[in-house]
Amino acid sequence: MSQKVYCIAQFQPKPGREAAVFAALQALEPNAHREDGCLQYTVTRHVDHPNAPGESYPIVFHEIWASREAFEAHCNRREIQAFFSAQVEAEDGDVADANVCVYTDEPQDFDAPRF
Fold first, then answer.
1. Is 16 left (phi over 0), alpha (psi -120 to 50) or beta?
2. What is the reported pTM?
3. Is 83 within 8 Å of 100 (Cβ atoms)?
4. Contacts of 28 (CB under 8 A, 6+ apart)
5. Of 7, 53, 88, 114, whose CA is between 20 and 30 Å from 77?
6. 30-71 pLDDT, tens per residue?
7. Please, which residues bridge with residue 89 across strands?
8. What is the tally of helices (H) and strands (E) in the chain?
9. Alpha carbon distances (Å) from 44 to 1, 60, 67, 68, 106
10. What is the rounded radius of gyration, in angstroms, for the C-alpha atoms of the chain?
11. Residue 101 to residues 23, 61, 64, Cα–Cα distance (Å)
C-alpha cells in the first residue's frame, strides 16, 4: 500500500508581490529537501500556454512526501510555520490567499496488504 502524500500548495500574492513571494518560497526548498521524508518539493510559477488554458493561483508548490507523518513533521517545522505566520496570516504579509490540499494515489477502498 502506498503511504505517499501528495501536496499542492497554491499562493495568491498581493498585487506587485509575486516576485517576493516566489523568492520566499524558493528559500524554503533547500531545508525541505534535507528532510528524510521529502521526495519532491518544488515551487513553480504559472505560465501561459495554449494547450493549458486553465485558471490557477500564480505560484504553486508541488510536494511528495513519503508518508503522512513526514508531511505533518514538515508542516510543523519552525521555518514553515514562520512563513505562514508572517506571509499568509499576518495583515502585512505578501500573500493574499493560500490553498493547501493533500492527495493520495490509492483508489478508494484499496485493500493491498500492509507489510
1. left
2. 0.90
3. no
4. 41, 43, 79, 80, 83
5. 114
6. 999 999 999 999 999 999 999 999 989 999 999 999 999 999
7. none
8. 4, 4
9. 29, 5, 23, 23, 25
10. 16
11. 22, 11, 12
